[in-house]
Structures
1.
Amino acid sequence: TQGKVITCKAAVAWEPNKPLSIEDVEVAPPQPGEVRIKILYTALCHTDAYTWSGQDPEGLFPCILGHEAAGIVESVGEGVREVQPGDHVIPCYQAECRECKFCKSGKTNLCGKVRAATGVGVMMTDRQSRFSVNGKPIFHFMGTSTFSQYTVVHDVSVAKVDPQAPLDKVCLLGCGVPTGLGAVWNTAKVEPGSNVAIFGLGTVGLAVAEGAKTAGASRIIGIDIDPKKFDVAKNFGVNEFVNPNDHDKPIQQVLVDLTDGGVDYSFECIGKVSVMRAALECCHKGWGTSVIVGVAASGQEISTRPFQLVTGRVWKGTAFGGFKSRTQVPWLVDKYMNKEIKVDEYITHNMTLLEINEAFDLMHEGGCLRCVLSL
Ligand code: NAD
Ligand code: AHE
Ligand code: ZN
């Protein structure tokens, strides 16, 4: 297949909110600096649903969504040195080139090398897409497009992982689990004994809980409007629960009262700006830090009284938990293999690519953390 167009199945989002449609997609060979991957497993993340809904200002249609996956390199373009056909890999929507000013800064995991192209659904070299259906180009998504049996990504967006690792599990290390763990370990840097509040107990929020537990946090307070989330959250380290619907007071007040003035760290893992405000305002005066993890819709803005910051609360955000993707995703896979982090526990459903619309329905129903699709 090397150097040839591959025709395979992919789920195409033709328009916002219209059911994804399984199409025969043509996938062009990788150009210089690109890697073509046979995707074996992909999970669904809330961000896929967000862009599909039409609320993402960077959303382009038609496109192939998907960014939490694992597969095997099928072929590589000219100049690609770090991976070769047969390597087991995880595509990384957050690239790491190790050469740009972001990568060299030591201050961030954001990488500037291919971001301009991935934000507009094309590849860097020629600003074209590698996907088409009957000659019509289909946009890439987040530089990954994993809802396809084959995809093409930039070489700076591929992490090579332990070939022994089960790809149907470690695909989760492409987004949600590292995001939550890293929000705690890298962005907030939670210390032992801290009190932590987590808004939203989906996969990302539960991974925050797991990260907080391993960081030695004392009180790990989970906040969700879906009471079904509370039982499962215990297994991830959440030791207190608050359902905002059980209270008349604003949720920030409930938390301030519960914690003698506020929490040391809070995490918004939903994507709602009103909750982001509550998450900041439930932090302790003088030092409480709130990390925004959730992705909010186009046009939404955060607000609070500046006095909240004047009096020492800190507002931060995180992308992919601050992890440097190509360097640290393999390290996270090794930690999973050594049983130091959970992954299997987040997988509540397994389905096939053909059932992708049903899989999205499950996500909206709540009983689902991660659904892994086999391709
Ligand atoms: P999810 O849908 O599985 O979980 C969200 C949870 O929030 C659910 O349990 C839901 O019941 C709860 N919830 C909804 N409204 C609430 C409210 N008002 N108060 C309390 N709880 C409420 O989503 P996920 O896959 O875990 O992703 C969470 C968020 O993180 C999404 O916005 C996603 O786009 C974002 N995300 C960001 C990054 C990043 O790098 N920053 C990475 C991955 C995901
Ligand atoms: N295109 C969206 C932004 C979406 C967003 O913030 N994405 C996160 C990852 S979410 C993964 O599930 C991220 O990493 N952002 C940093 C970046 O460079 O995109 C919008 O609203 O414009
Ligand atoms: Zn995601």
2.
Amino acid sequence: MKSFAAVATLLAEQEIELPSWAFGNSGTRFKVFTTPGTPRTPQEKIADAAQVHKYTALSPSVALHIPWDKVDDYAALSAFAQEHGVALGTINSNTFQDDAYKFGSLTHTDAAVRQKAIDHHFECIDIMDATGSRDLKIWLADGTNYPGQGDIRGRQDRLQESLQKIYDRIGENQRLVLEYKFFEPAFYHTDVPDWGTSYAQVAALGDRALVCLDTGHHAPGTNIEFIVMQLLRLGKLGSFDFNSRFYADDDLIVGAADPFQLFRILFEVVRGGGYGADSGVAFMLDQCHNVEDKIAGQIRSVLNVQEMTARALLVDTDTLKAAQDAGDVLGANGILMDAFYTDVRPDLAAWRESRGLAGDPTAAYAASGYQAKIAADRVGGQQASWGA
Ligand code: LRH
Ligand code: MN
Ligand code: MN
């Protein structure tokens, strides 16, 4: 196995974008519990996200969701973020909450509805220009509930046409990432259900169109690291929405349900050249904290990603390759498992301290009094417009 010291410089490159909506109240269709101190404005969400970065040095940017984070002046919002030590990142479009989109958005049979959805993306691109954001992330709720309800081929063709118009509008240094999800809210078919469809759609657009992989958007038992490998191999992995799930799109804390899966994913990311500042693969969280404290939940999340990244980096790839080539099945498996079973927490704590951070970010945040202060200051916090 490699030594922790040998991988520490790579760890310093890690950046994990936080979703603004993780800081709002969220829940299920059964109940949304409120949390004291919940942000009331996009500015307060950004201020909370900045706390996560302050204690972990892992999350220098915050993703916005439009219109959930609608403001009058995005350049001013960007300046506000900078003052708090973070930048504004990915802009997420939202075509899943208007009545107009009941039967689809970019795939709709009515050209006027499609244009409304395209115009919303143009507005998102204008926001990106004001905030300096690189990525436009598109997730579509489009789909049908019953066989025969829609012409699934026609919908795919209209999707391509709509995406092309959006892609043509993004700037030279901007990218479009298309997220897939196997079901929900549509249950019979979804227009972008899997990586293959997302790949086919973005490949037809051009180099700056890529796939976004949300770890919670696969059927149980799916080998997600295989998809990671394939997309990296094809040069089309643009970004991750990290979270974890037991059943469907649970949006639980990444690495909480299955840290081994997160390790396997990160191992393939590293293997495929998807790790590091220049890799072009953006790490993001896409989570909700329904019953736990949100800022502490985000701190736990980025630390989970960091821990599994460190373990993935520890794998002795030369020895692994030799074992693989020699047909040493158990030897190869053992090399991977050695790295996975290594508790990197003490090394990470010491390394943080060497960089002027608290060894235990969770404890440092808890001791700061920030949570009590926002609970006292903020009354009537915002509900994230997103249930389960
Ligand atoms: C859809 C999704 C998508 C949305 C977010 C709130 O399930 O993963 O990324 O933008 O949740
Ligand atoms: Mn997502
Ligand atoms: Mn999701």
